[in-house]
Amino acid sequence: MKKSTFKLLACGLVLTTFGLATSCSSDDKKEEVIVAPPAADSRWITLAGALMQDQPGDGNGGTKVFSISKENAKDPAFSVNVFDDGAPVQSSRTARLQSSVDGSTLFNITYTGANGGEFMTYTVGGGKNFIQSGTTVNISQYAGTSPRWNKLFDGDKTGVAVNITTPVVVTNEDKSYKHTRGGATVLSLDLKGIAISAAQQYQIPLSDAEEALGHYIFRLDAPTLNKAGDKLIIGTWMAKTNPATGQQDKEFTRIGSKSVVVDYPSLKNPQIITSTVAFGDTSGFRSFNSFLATDGNIYQATQRDLIKGSYILKINQNNQYDNTYDFSLDTALGVKGSYVEAWRYVGNGIAYAVYRVGASKQSFVARIDLTAKTAKLVEGIPYDADLSFEQYQGFVVDKNELFIAVTPVGKDGNIYILDGKTGAVTKGAKLINKTGNRYIGVF
């Protein structure tokens, strides 16, 4: 899939894509990856890889991207090396990427660093050709330099970024413990106009009883638009202060899983809803964690409850948890301490989740039936001991097919295509890795 090309260019040529520069000499040779454009009814698929900084798999050394056609993605004879052949996207650590439904546009909010909080778009051109739009918008004055964000499923119109400032312990006049809170920001982005649409900031208190025990919202993430289009459901990551010491409790008895519901598009009127079925967090990590399903309800995964493991929760169209819907992944998979690292809804009640079990870092893939409340390990994927989806971000859903990058940390792997209707598993393009690096998604 590669050919050598002889460069007859003047030294110091500046490349326009990403503003990269190169030096050259008259005998300089460069390996150029040849990427065929997708067919008329097809799409680009962008591979993203996170580079090691200090420790293998830490993903903190930046992010590179490389796009191929869907046809190439399905071809096990085709090879991709995003780390040698790809282009960097702006981010001090791992970029937080999203893509348009058709794969033609890549969206990025820079995570941390001097440019943290800058939102930009790239036009996908194949290979390492990503043309950045001439406009950026900085949301750091509202949401900080490390915002969490998701693209809404509204025709690529809107993204929503959320943030909680560092929670602060507040005491009563007699110095006794009162509560712990941080300031919340919810901000919407016009993805097409590259502009801030709306922003709201407020505190989101728990009940008096919960706050007196030290519970508080540590992080917001994974906003999802409901079927009516008038509410956002935002996941939470909970933490707890020890009221006696004012220090954070590392281990504590969890309260019911919670989400924040705000009016949309105004982003006002935050309300907390609580599940009595599960007790894990609903924030996910670096990927979508809630989905509007075909039946009009929202389904949400939980994390960080190693006693009961992950659950799939159901939020009805009245924007409240359906506590009659009891779907434990521990029970469905026959394991103890399941932990959903990322997942993606495909359609017609079928989803796929990447997960680990207990204290192990090794990851697996499960096919989930939300209607039957069943989950089954996907066979046909090589489950290497170093396979970890802990930082995984991106799946592509194209019609009934889900594309996923399966690569152990520092080892080669492949794209796999999972058929949402039949459950069939097909090996796709080979993904060439480098020591300590990891592929974090397809977009």
What's the short version?
The chain is mainly beta and 443 residues long.
Describe the structure.
This protein has helices spanning 70-73, 82-85, 140-143, 208-212, 329-333, and strands spanning 2-6, 29-33, 44-50, 63-69, 79-80, 87-89, 96-99, 105-109, 118-124, 130-132, 137-138, 148-151, 158-164, 168-171, 177-181, 183-190, 195-203, 215-225, 231-240, 258-263, 271-274, 290-292, 298-301, 311-315, 327-328, 338-347, 350-357, 363-369, 374-377, 396-398, 401-406, 413-419, 425-431, 438-442. With 443 residues, the protein is mainly β. It has two domains: 1-135, no CATH class; 139-328, no CATH class. The strands form nine sheets. Strands 5-33-32-31-30 form a five-stranded mixed beta sheet, with no helix packed on it. Strands 7, 8, 9, 10 and 11 form a five-stranded antiparallel beta sheet that branches. A four-stranded antiparallel beta sheet has the order 6-4-3-34. The longest helix is centred in the middle third of the chain and has 5 residues, at 208-212. The two termini are 21 Å apart. Mean pLDDT is 93; it is low at 1-29. Keywords: Signal. This is DUF4374 domain-containing protein. Residues 1-23 form the signal peptide.
Shape: globular
State the secondary-structure class: mainly beta
Number of discrete helical segments = 5
Spatial ordering of strands, largest sheet: 5-33-32-31-30
Give average pLDDT, whole number.
93
Q: Count the beta strands.
A: 34
Characterize the biggest β-sheet.
Answer: 5 strands, mixed
- How far apart the termini lie comes to 21 Å
Helix content: under 10%
- Beta content comes to 35-45%
Radius of gyration: 22 Å
Number of domains: 2
**Could you list the spans in which at least 5 consecutive residues all have pLDDT below 50?**
1-29
